[in-house]
């Protein structure tokens, strides 16, 4: 889908240019709070810890902070969380009214561990953070926190003195005497300055944009006045930071000195540009820091508009408190300083202390949950276009895939399938018999996705609208009426998805008897859930719109999260809790991984957009969202044939694999570019299908333990500094390295194979290469450079059929890539592919495959589980093998049988013919 | 009943023809034509010769041959294919990946022998349906083909008519050309004396004018002399001339004595006869003391241009009026407005000031000259008339040649579509196909017509070029290509647009039936046999 097409202003600004219109979106300078906050200079923190207020309980430490300029007090809460995390919460001690705290993102109240007081004097306190000789040092004046391990500072808070907390206040009428005593009394009463302290200095001059802000033609009334918050973090020894998606930028974040900060504010950005820090559709306020020594994470739990400044210096800028009784080491230690600024809410930050990348992933998963385990078919290929015009068109495209022997699992219907953009309905002329159409797909074991956007046509003859209105479920405008904005259907209302009752009702609309024409093989796509409001400020909702008592300002970035959640819950409910849902969303927040997939929005058919798809999905993977993809082919514009082929080849090795195209572009189904290109695309898609067992297993792990599916190289090679900024190649799990061709007219590329003493095998030729080298690879148009790590075992299904469901019972081929020490291990995960039975009834097979001492074995990893499969082991391909004299298969019943084999001496590839053993049982093959 | 009988007969005929029974033993998925390669209990050599394997490895659900030939009946080979006999319908090959995938592909159900899918044998039903539709198609084809013959006949006759007309026109063109040439000579012959007489007339008028001018100059000179000779001593002196500052040669505002002397040819004073030479040097600048305005120059070069402008105001004064039809109404109004404004501007040199010099107009031509002019004019008119007639004939011929030159198909069977239009009404639009011209779309409920493409070319595949028409360069799409339409032609008794669609934005597809594409029908038996093998 795309941004506002029909709106006049866009039509005007579009004429003749393809680039984003930056003028439609705010810079930091145009965002009043960002401008105010960024104007603060470091090193002048007015905050002081009132150590006498310190309280230490079993679960937390509390301490008051005072701003010496205005005497406003803050309450600091410190928690040591299980799993090597520290949580720091700062709120006003007595806010004028409650400040927003983000609900529903954390999967539970994070379990704590006790803190203990090590020492205390008038300058601060030292606390023990459990084991590992970790200490937390609280300095009193100015207030700062340092987390130390041994003699090393891991991270400091407010070390640059940029903690700034705009307390809620009563508006002073500018017409009245600025010293207006009435207001002042109220202020003082509200803030309760401590007795005996000198009278608060009024440091509250009213600046522009505090109580009202205008951008273009939109005015943001700010009934609550200024409320922004900010905090800085220093990371000594760190040169690399990652994460805070969504930005169309490199994997390694850049410093923001001299430019705008990275912005987190969910926006429908029309024709976005690559390589800049502008906000996009989704926001996950999580940053990872990495050095060869340690990986850490900062999770800034705030759903308001947020800006993140990053600066880096190698000077010994960190000045330690008097409590630190040692001399800081070399002043040349690199350091990264990060500053977070949010418009409202509180400071609630989770410091994930790693120390390994895997640890950080687990820590973050323990807070916000893991990737939803998708139905296996959702990992296969998706065919989308705005729009497949009618049932005949759908049938013809479906048949086209069979005629050209290209597999696919899902065909998608964009907004034109509805009756006048009324979601949950069908265009009566174009889709008169949706169930017939769905049955036709079901007969081929295929599926469909229809779009359901969160803007609801204001139309009194539309059932959905009437119910939402009568139940009072719409977001309200600041004046209390239903908020209305312009979107695809014209005038639209926006259901308040932050309301649990609204979500429950929305979910119930997906029941088969509610969503007419729907069937069990129909799934859902939530587009425009930033939300997109064509005539709103920055193409989104007014910040003073109301979700119950809260302004959109407070929770803007959460809206899309809730939309996807309510929809996913609807799909679960309609099956009585049996079937796993599949929901794609464009906007997201921390925790969205629990509800489905996301994609990188409305990209363009340009080589740069193909390239940027890698860092964009890698960044998302680092912060929990593994199910990520970019529109294959590019949404806007029409790709050259070469670009289309390269995009299929790249997309085939990215988690969410969907082709999509704009309404105005020529058709581009895979067979429309001549037989050679059809064959190239077919081959790329077939490689995807053959590898589905591995993809499924990776997603099982992502679901189980929060490990990303698509990984930057440094995640697996954390000490290899050469990998730290690589984002033109990536790993799938640990064992596959992919360096897709993303250069136009490429004749060759250089891939980096990591790992000193390791080997990698080209998955197409089985050629062995040493690790820790830059390998030049000549490429042709059919090349997709992929390498399997020596030491790994990857299961594939070589019998590629027309949909993944058709391959359910097919046998496996195991690719055993031996390490130099002639060892390898891998896994095999099998379940029914679409229900929750793997979870609820432990109905799955999870086996460990390992090769050692010239024997390959399969052993049960989950003794408590039970599942039977028809699948068997068809073939075993051992890479880097030597020729045995015989190969014997041993099964648990004690039977032994000789296996035939074929040995290719030139490539050292041993192929064992037809072990034939069931994939779910124990077996061993011994080579002699 | 008759169908069943037919089928039975055909089965027999085919069975006898191939000399084999349907039940013949061969590995699953092998077509009869390849049966001989799969000899029971003998080693099998892959059809590509790549290796030889024991017979029991055929269809053992493991792929041994690179070409997939050892697993014709299983899904083991990625590149294999499975043969379904489909008795009662058409035999088919399917990719072996469709064996036992839970989806019924072969109408005889043989592809799903181990998947749990319950397939119905639909071959007979499909065969029957296909035969029915083939029969209907055959009838349509037959009738359509007859109509086509008629069309060809008519086209041939039309073509001949046009050819005849063309020949006829070619004849008359020749006559006209001769006539034009003859009249050109007549015209030129008449124009020569005309030109001479006119020049003569003009020359004598010029001479006369020159005399008058000289006379006037003399008078002025005498007047000036009298005027300058303040002391009436019969001489114009330096002092007398010095008061005429307008004569200052270096225009520095003062006329010095030396300068004045220079004007007087170096003398201190001149008499009437010497003044003649002085006068010629100063007359252009000289201001009569009695007149306040300087005399207008004798000849204004601008005047010629002005005359042209006035005499032909439409030629290029408002080129924007001709800029094109795209200009919308508002623009036109503005133009009108401008025009009015222009007209209000007072004409600057449109009516030149009357001057004594030009007051006298040229006298009318004498009768002799006038009659020469009249004669030449008539010759010109006759010539123009003849030329116009020739152009008309040329145009007619061009149109005819264009039509004759159109590719109306191998036998001109599509000629009847020329200058016709066919419409299809959908819920929203009326689509209009004017073959060899254009395709358009008009909203049913108001709104202007959209051009969906102009005739481009025949665009069918090599073996049936005339099955597809392509219309392109239609109206542009917002952010998209120009609209274009592909028209697919199928055989039908009637000429009618049967459907339209827009498979891709601004790329339209139209289905059009016409007898002109009907192929000569094979006999029904041949048709049926061609599609029914065992």
UniProtKB/TrEMBL annotation, chain A:
<keyword id="KW-0326">Glycosidase</keyword>
<keyword id="KW-0256">Endoplasmic reticulum</keyword>
<dbReference type="InterPro" id="IPR013780">
    <property type="entry name" value="Glyco_hydro_b"/>
</dbReference>
<dbReference type="GO" id="GO:0017177">
    <property type="term" value="C:glucosidase II complex"/>
</dbReference>
<dbReference type="GO" id="GO:0033919">
    <property type="term" value="F:glucan 1,3-alpha-glucosidase activity"/>
</dbReference>
<feature type="domain" description="Glycosyl hydrolase family 31 C-terminal">
    <location>
        <begin position="706"/>
        <end position="794"/>
    </location>
</feature>
<keyword id="KW-0333">Golgi apparatus</keyword>
<dbReference type="Pfam" id="PF21365">
    <property type="entry name" value="Glyco_hydro_31_3rd"/>
</dbReference>
<dbReference type="GO" id="GO:0106407">
    <property type="term" value="F:Glc2Man9GlcNAc2 oligosaccharide glucosidase activity"/>
</dbReference>
<comment type="similarity">
    <text>Belongs to the glycosyl hydrolase 31 family.</text>
</comment>
<keyword id="KW-0732">Signal</keyword>
<dbReference type="InterPro" id="IPR000322">
    <property type="entry name" value="Glyco_hydro_31_TIM"/>
</dbReference>
<feature type="compositionally biased region" description="Basic and acidic residues">
    <location>
        <begin position="176"/>
        <end position="187"/>
    </location>
</feature>
<feature type="signal peptide">
    <location>
        <begin position="1"/>
        <end position="19"/>
    </location>
</feature>
<dbReference type="GO" id="GO:0005794">
    <property type="term" value="C:Golgi apparatus"/>
</dbReference>
<dbReference type="InterPro" id="IPR025887">
    <property type="entry name" value="Glyco_hydro_31_N_dom"/>
</dbReference>
<protein>
    <recommendedName>
        <fullName>Neutral alpha-glucosidase AB</fullName>
        <ecNumber>3.2.1.207</ecNumber>
    </recommendedName>
</protein>
<dbReference type="Pfam" id="PF13802">
    <property type="entry name" value="Gal_mutarotas_2"/>
</dbReference>
<dbReference type="GO" id="GO:0006491">
    <property type="term" value="P:N-glycan processing"/>
</dbReference>
<feature type="domain" description="Glycoside hydrolase family 31 N-terminal">
    <location>
        <begin position="77"/>
        <end position="309"/>
    </location>
</feature>
<feature type="compositionally biased region" description="Basic and acidic residues">
    <location>
        <begin position="196"/>
        <end position="207"/>
    </location>
</feature>
<keyword id="KW-0378">Hydrolase</keyword>
UniProtKB/TrEMBL annotation, chain B:
<keyword id="KW-0175">Coiled coil</keyword>
<dbReference type="GO" id="GO:0017177">
    <property type="term" value="C:glucosidase II complex"/>
</dbReference>
<feature type="coiled-coil region">
    <location>
        <begin position="376"/>
        <end position="403"/>
    </location>
</feature>
<dbReference type="InterPro" id="IPR036607">
    <property type="entry name" value="PRKCSH"/>
</dbReference>
<dbReference type="InterPro" id="IPR028146">
    <property type="entry name" value="PRKCSH_N"/>
</dbReference>
<keyword id="KW-1015">Disulfide bond</keyword>
<feature type="region of interest" description="Disordered">
    <location>
        <begin position="286"/>
        <end position="365"/>
    </location>
</feature>
<dbReference type="Pfam" id="PF13015">
    <property type="entry name" value="PRKCSH_1"/>
</dbReference>
<protein>
    <recommendedName>
        <fullName>Glucosidase 2 subunit beta</fullName>
    </recommendedName>
</protein>
<dbReference type="InterPro" id="IPR002048">
    <property type="entry name" value="EF_hand_dom"/>
</dbReference>
<keyword id="KW-0106">Calcium</keyword>
<dbReference type="InterPro" id="IPR009011">
    <property type="entry name" value="Man6P_isomerase_rcpt-bd_dom_sf"/>
</dbReference>
<feature type="domain" description="EF-hand">
    <location>
        <begin position="216"/>
        <end position="251"/>
    </location>
</feature>
<keyword id="KW-0479">Metal-binding</keyword>
<dbReference type="GO" id="GO:0006491">
    <property type="term" value="P:N-glycan processing"/>
</dbReference>
<feature type="compositionally biased region" description="Basic and acidic residues">
    <location>
        <begin position="307"/>
        <end position="320"/>
    </location>
</feature>
<keyword id="KW-0732">Signal</keyword>
<dbReference type="GO" id="GO:0001889">
    <property type="term" value="P:liver development"/>
</dbReference>
<feature type="compositionally biased region" description="Acidic residues">
    <location>
        <begin position="322"/>
        <end position="343"/>
    </location>
</feature>
<dbReference type="InterPro" id="IPR018247">
    <property type="entry name" value="EF_Hand_1_Ca_BS"/>
</dbReference>
<dbReference type="InterPro" id="IPR044865">
    <property type="entry name" value="MRH_dom"/>
</dbReference>
<dbReference type="InterPro" id="IPR039794">
    <property type="entry name" value="Gtb1-like"/>
</dbReference>
């Amino acid at each position: 889908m795309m941004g506002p097409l029909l709106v006049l202003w866009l039509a005007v600004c579009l004429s003749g240019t393809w680039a984003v219109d930056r003028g439609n979106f705010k810079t930091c300078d145009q965002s009043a709070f960002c401008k105010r906050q960024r104007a603060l200079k470091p090193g002048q923190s007015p905050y002081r810890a009132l150590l006498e207020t310190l309280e230490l309980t079993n679960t937390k430490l509390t301490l008051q902070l005072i701003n010496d300029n205005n005497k406003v007090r803050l309450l600091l809460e410190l928690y040591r969380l299980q799993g090597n995390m520290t949580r720091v919460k700062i709120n006003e001690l007595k806010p004028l009214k409650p400040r927003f705290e983000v609900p529903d993102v954390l999967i539970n109240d994070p379990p704590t561990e006790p803190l203990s007081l090590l020492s205390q004097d008038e300058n601060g306190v030292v606390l023990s953070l459990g084991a590992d000789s970790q200490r937390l040092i609280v300095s009193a004046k100015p207030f700062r926190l340092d987390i130390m391990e041994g003699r090393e500072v891991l991270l400091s808070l407010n070390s640059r003195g940029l903690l700034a907390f705009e307390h809620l206040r009563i508006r002073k009428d500018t017409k009245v005497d600025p010293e207006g005593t009435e207001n002042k009394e109220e202020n003082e009463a509200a803030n309760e300055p401590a007795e005996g302290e000198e009278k608060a200095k009024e440091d509250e001059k009213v600046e522009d944009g505090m109580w009202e802000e205008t951008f273009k033609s939109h005015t943001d009334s700010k009934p609550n006045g200024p409320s922004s918050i900010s905090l800085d973090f220093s990371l000594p020894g760190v040169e690399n930071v990652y994460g805070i998606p969504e930005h169309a930028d490199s994997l390694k974040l850049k410093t923001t000195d001299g430019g705008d900060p990275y912005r987190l504010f969910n926006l429908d950005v029309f024709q976005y540009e690559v390589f800049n820090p502008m906000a996009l559709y989704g926001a996950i306020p999580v940053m990872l820091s990495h050095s060869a020594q340690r990986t850490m994470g900062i999770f800034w739990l705030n759903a308001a508009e947020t800006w993140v400044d990053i600066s880096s210096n190698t000077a010994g800028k960190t000045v330690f408190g008097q409590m630190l009784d040692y001399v800081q080491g070399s002043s040349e230690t690199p350091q990264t300083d990060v500053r977070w600024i949010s418009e409202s809410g509180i400071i609630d930050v989770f410091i994930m202390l790693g120390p390994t990348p895997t640890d950080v992933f687990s820590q973050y998963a323990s807070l916000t949950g893991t990737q939803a385990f998708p139905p296996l078919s959702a990992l296969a290929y998706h065919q989308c276009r705005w729009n497949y015009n009618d049932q005949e068109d759908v049938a013809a495209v479906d048949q086209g895939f069979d005629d050209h022997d290209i597999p696919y699992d899902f065909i998608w219907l964009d907004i034109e399938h509805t009756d006048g953009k009324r979601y949950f309905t069908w265009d009566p002329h174009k889709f008169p018999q949706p169930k017939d159409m769905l049955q036709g797909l079901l007969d081929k074991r295929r599926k469909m996705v229809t779009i359901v956007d969160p803007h609801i046509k204001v139309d009194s003859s539309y059932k959905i609208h009437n119910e939402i209105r009568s139940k009072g479920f719409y977001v309200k405008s600041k004046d209390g009426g239903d908020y209305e904005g312009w979107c695809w259907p014209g005038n639209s209302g926006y259901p308040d998805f932050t309301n649990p009752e609204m979500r429950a009702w929305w979910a119930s609309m997906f029941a088969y008897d509610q969503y007419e024409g729907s069937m069990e093989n129909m799934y859902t796509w939530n587009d425009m859930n930033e939300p997109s409001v064509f005539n709103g400020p920055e193409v989104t909702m007014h910040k003073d719109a109301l979700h119950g008592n809260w302004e959109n300002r407070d929770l803007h970035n959460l809206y899309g999260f809730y939309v996807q959640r309510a929809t996913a819950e609807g799909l679960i409910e309609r099956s009585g809790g049996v079937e796993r849902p599949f929901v794609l969303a464009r906007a997201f927040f921390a925790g969205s991984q629990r509800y489905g997939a996301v994609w990188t929005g409305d990209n363009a058919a340009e080589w740069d957009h193909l390239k940027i798809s890698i860092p964009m999905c890698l960044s998302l993977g680092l912060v929990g969202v593994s199910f990520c993809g970019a529109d294959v082919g590019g949404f806007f514009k029409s790709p050259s044939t070469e670009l289309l082929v390269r995009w299929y080849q790249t997309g085939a090795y990215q988690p969410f694999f969907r082709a999509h195209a704009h309404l105005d572009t020529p058709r581009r189904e895979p067979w429309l570019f001549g037989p050679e290109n059809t064959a190239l695309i077919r081959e790329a898609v077939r490689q995807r299908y053959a590898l589905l067992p591995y993809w499924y297993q990776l997603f099982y792990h992502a679901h189980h333990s929060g490990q990303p599916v698509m990984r930057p190289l440094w995640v697996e090679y954390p000490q290899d500094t050469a990998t730290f900024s690589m984002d033109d190649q990536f790993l799938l799990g640990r064992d596959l390295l992919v360096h897709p061709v993303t250069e136009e007219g490429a004749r060759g590329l250089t891939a980096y194979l990591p790992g000193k003493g390791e080997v990698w095998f080209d998955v197409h030729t089985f050629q062995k290469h040493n690790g820790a080298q830059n390998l030049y690879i000549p490429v042709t148009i059919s090349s997709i450079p992929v390498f399997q790590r020596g030491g790994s075992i990857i299961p594939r299904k070589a019998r590629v059929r027309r949909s993944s469901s058709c391959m359910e019972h097919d046998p496996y081929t195991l690719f055993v890539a031996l390490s130099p020490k002639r060892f390898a291990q891998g896994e095999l995960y099998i379940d029914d592919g679409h229900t929750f039975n793997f979870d609820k009834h432990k109905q799955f097979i999870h086996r460990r495959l390992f090769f050692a001492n010239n024997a390959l074995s399969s052993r049960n990893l989950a003794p408590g589980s039970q599942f039977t499969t028809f699948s068997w082991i068809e073939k075993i391909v051992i890479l880097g093998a030597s020729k045995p004299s015989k190969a014997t298969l041993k099964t648990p019943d004690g039977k032994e049988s000789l296996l035939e084999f074929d040995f290719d001496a030139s490539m050292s590839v041993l192929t064992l013919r037809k072990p034939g053993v069931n994939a779910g049982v124990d077996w061993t093959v011994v080579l002699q | 009943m008759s169908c069943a009988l037919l089928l039975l007969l055909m089965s027999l005929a085919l069975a006898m023809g191939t000399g084999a029974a349907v039940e013949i033993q061969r590995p699953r998925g092998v077509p009869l034509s390849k049966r001989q390669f799969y000899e029971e209990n003998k080693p099998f050599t892959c059809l590509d010769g790549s290796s030889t394997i024991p017979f029991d490895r055929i269809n053992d659900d493991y792929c041994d041959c690179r070409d997939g030939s050892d697993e014709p009946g299983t899904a083991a080979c990625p590149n294999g294919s499975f043969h379904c006999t489909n008795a009662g319908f058409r035999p088919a090959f399917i990719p072996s990946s469709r064996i036992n995938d839970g989806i019924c592909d072969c109408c005889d159900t043989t592809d799903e022998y181990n998947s749990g899918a319950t397939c119905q044998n639909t071959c007979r039903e499909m065969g029957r349906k296909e035969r029915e539709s083939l029969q209907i198609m055959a009838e349509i084809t037959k009738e359509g083909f007859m109509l086509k013959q008629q069309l060809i006949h008519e086209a041939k006759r039309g073509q001949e008519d046009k050819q005849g007309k063309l020949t006829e026109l070619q004849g008359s063109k020749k006559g006209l050309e001769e006539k034009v040439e003859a009249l050109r000579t007549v015209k030129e012959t008449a124009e020569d004396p005309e030109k001479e007489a006119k020049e003569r007339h003009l020359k004598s008028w010029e001479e006369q004018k020159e005399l008058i001018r000289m006379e006037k100059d003399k008078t002025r000179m005498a007047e000036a002399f009298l005027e300058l000779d303040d002391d009436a001593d019969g001489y114009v002196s330096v002092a007398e001339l010095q008061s005429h500052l307008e004569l200052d040669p270096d225009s520095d505002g003062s006329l010095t004595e030396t300068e004045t002397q220079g004007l007087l040819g170096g003398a201190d004073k001149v008499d009437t006869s010497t003044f003649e030479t002085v006068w010629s040097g100063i007359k252009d600048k000289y201001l009569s003391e009695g007149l306040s305005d300087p005399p207008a120059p004798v000849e204004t070069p601008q005047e010629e241009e002005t005359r042209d402008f006035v005499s032909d105001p439409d030629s290029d004064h408002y080129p924007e009026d001709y800029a094109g039809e795209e200009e919308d109404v508002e623009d036109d109004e503005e133009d009108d407005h401008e025009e009015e404004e222009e007209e209000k501007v007072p004409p600057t040199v449109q009516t030149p000031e009357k001057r004594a010099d030009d007051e006298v107009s040229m006298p009318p031509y004498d009768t002799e000259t006038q009659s020469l002019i009249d004669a030449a004019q008539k010759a010109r008119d006759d010539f123009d008339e003849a030329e116009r007639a020739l152009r008309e004939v040329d145009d007619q011929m061009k149109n005819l040649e264009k039509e004759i030159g159109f590719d109306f198909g191998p036998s001109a069977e599509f000629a009847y579509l020329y200058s016709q239009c066919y419409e299809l009404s959908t819920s929203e639009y009326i689509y209009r196909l004017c073959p060899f011209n254009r395709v358009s779309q008009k909203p049913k409920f108001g709104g202007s017509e959209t051009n969906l493409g102009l005739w481009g070319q025949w665009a069918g595949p090599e073996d049936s070029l005339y099955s597809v028409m392509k219309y392109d360069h239609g109206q542009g799409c917002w952010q998209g290509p120009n609209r274009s339409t592909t028209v697919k032609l199928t055989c039908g008794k009637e000429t009618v647009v049967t459907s339209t669609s827009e498979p891709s934005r601004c790329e339209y597809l139209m289905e059009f039936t016409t007898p002109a594409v009907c192929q000569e029908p094979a006999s029904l038996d041949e048709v049926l046999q061609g599609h029914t093998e065992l």
